[in-house]
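User: structure tokens for this one?
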Amino acid sequence: MDVLITGESAKLPPAYADLIDPGKPIPTGVAYFEKKVVTSDLAKAAGLALALAVTGAMMIILGILVLSKPTVAKTSTMEYSPLFFGIILIFASWMMFSSLKKRREVMALQNEGTTTRLGIYLTSDCLFEVNEYGYCVIPREHFRGRECLTIKYVLGAAEKSFRLPAELTNADTSAMASAIDQWAATS
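Assistant:
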């Protein structure tokens, strides 16, 4: 099996789709570490979204000013760059703002004591990450280790990584790190 990164639960293999189904119990032999969504997560995401929006708006204004200047020469494609990057930043900001609703809902569910199924799963053969944006299934043969709260793996020929949750609802991060290390040491 290759590494699978997707934003759609329908693309997950059935065994992994079952893990994220709140109506089904987590099977024995699967370690689950639930990510805790905290107010500082919301504040960081809102701050980043706002910074992206402001920077995007400034780039769009700059692009309009550059394109509206009177010139005799033909307009270069480089003069469109601020406008293009501004639009991309506005889109990124919109994506960040849209994630705030999901994060708020998850935080409310966790405060009620409901398991949200966000976090890290360790199955017999894969490390499975579920976050607000999607899913990442890392088979053991693609796993390259853990450094503090960073997981390293290989996707194609490139080494990739992601950060583990900094706060958990059902354990502390050292217990999760120890479980990952034990999982990695078994064949």
